[in-house]
Amino acid sequence: MFNQRTKIKELLTQQPEGQEVTVMGWVRTFRNNQFVALNDGSTNTNLQVVLPLGEFDEATLKRITTSAALKVTGTVIPSQGRGQQLEVKATALDILGDSDAEKYPLQPKKHSLEFLREIAHLRFRTNTFGSVFRIRHSLAFAIHTFFNERGFLYLHTPVITASDAEGAGEMFRVTTLPFDGTPRNDDGSVNFKEDFFGRATNLTVSGQLEGELGATAFGEIYTFGPTFRAENSNTTRHLAEFWMIEPEMAFYDLEDNMNLAEAFIKYIIGYVMTHNREDVEFLAARLAEEEKSLPADKRSEIGLIEKLEFVLNNDFQRITYTEAIDILLQSPAYKKKKFQYEVKWGIDMQSEHERYLVEKHFKKPVIVTNYPAAIKSFYMRLNDDGKTVAAMDILAPGIGEIVGGSQREERLDVLTARMQEMGVPADELWWYLDTRRFGTVPHAGFGLGFERMVQFVTGMGNIRDVIAFPRTPKSAEF
Ligand code: ATP
Ligand code: MN
After folding, report:
1. Which of 43, 138, 379, 384 is at a distance of 20 to 30 A from 63, taking alpha carbons?
2. Within a 13 Å sphere around the CA of 253, how many CA atoms are in the beta-carbon half?
3. Residue among 401, 448, 456 to mutate when testing ligand 1 (max atoms within 8 A of CB)
């Protein structure tokens, strides 16, 4: 058996009493031909490995270069140097893999995030990405724990879908039809009957509609899977491939939905604050350092940790869309013509408006409800006023919309009328409408963009830095 190693994170919690250990990892630095800073990805804290002078031959020492992979056996002893409690005094050393120092692109110095994006295959080996991806993992784990503890069923909705109910024009087509000699109908349109599935298919933009089918049998379900949008928006908040969490609950109204979403967000943030303290602290310090180079008015008013604690300890502000528009119209920003886009009842709020509400006016997460029906999807429940729907968006400081959800329209007649109004083909969605035909119930759900949540918790400014291998317009490397 090869793997008898102790992980560095675990080792560092030990009291140094001369126990023998084996560690494996990658060299971060090597100084004075004696001190190796070894990292195995379990923590940003490197293990200091001491190679007693004269114990290892020159040829071996020469091969200890940045990012070489080592196996070290030795004794845990109190550290002589400052900066660490313990170190490992090596008795045996194996070079598992050499690393050509001349060619290795990651030098032990500060690299820009833009540069690291170009070497995304190696950026996990930096402290920043170590912290980001351990937190991303913990968030995913916490999400499953939260729902599992509440009896939600994890439903896997399809990645390939024929329904184009949502996001028309933003879908990636899935096809095996040839580009040359594409089969055509008499009118010149593509004959998708010849395609793999015998119809036009796309990558999913949301698992919600299928999620509702699950909710109306299991009561409470959630999905957690990849989602694809061919939107050509080159922003710091949009990816072409991202992960979404979509709970759907029978017997929930809009308020139940908001309560769940708020409890959920607090739970997963709380989980990371307890289980990934070291990584959150590292990223908080990184952010504070990065912001030093910004003009004073662009810096965050509070640090990352304070921001997360604030979210944990305060109720989210709940306002209606109509109230939000009034606040914007009364704002100094509006009066001084600071908004680029128009403000009036009926607009789809732009990110400058959302940011004003969250960052300037309330200074905390805000849940906006009851949006105009005309700007929201067909499945959202029509309110009694006949012009708004029971929708809710949660807006978070720094990133804007993080959750979009609603109470779903459970009344078949109202639903089909809205579908007709909005040009959604009812015949293609016969299966969706069946839930309203056979034991329909009040139900609700929401979608949380996973990467936006990771951004919020890590303080990373660009969504490309919280997913391992980002897919964005004109970019699909790795
Ligand atoms: P936005 O207005 O920011 O584009 P949206 O209204 O298109 O968002 P929804 O369709 O409600 O978003 O999707 C649910 C959630 O998925 C959003 O609240 C957001 O957190 C996330 N999301 C949406 N589009 C993207 C994207 N392209 N990349 C990453 N996350 C996204
Ligand atoms: Mn969008």
Report:
1. 43
2. 4
3. 401
Each residue's pLDDT tens digit, 11-66? 999 888 899 999 999 999 999 999 999 999 999 999 999 999 999 999 999 999 99
Same domain, 292 and 224: yes
pLDDT for 351-392, tens place per residue?
899 999 998 999 899 999 999 999 999 999 999 999 999 999
The preferred substitution site among 234, 341, 352, 452 for testing ligand 1, maximizing ligand atoms within 8 Å of CB, is 452
Residues 339 and 375 in one domain: yes
Q: What is this structure's pTM?
A: 0.95
**What strands, in cross-sheet order, belong to the sheet with 366-372?**
153-154, 220-228, 241-250, 443-449, 400-408, 388-396, 366-372, 317-320
Residues 190 and 260 in one domain: no
Tokens 């990658």 map to which residue? 26
Residue 443, domain extent: 125-163+205-465
Instruction: Check whether residue 72 and residue 217 sit in a common domain.
Output: no
What is the distance between the alpha carbons of residues 179 and 394, in angstroms, rounded to a whole number? 42
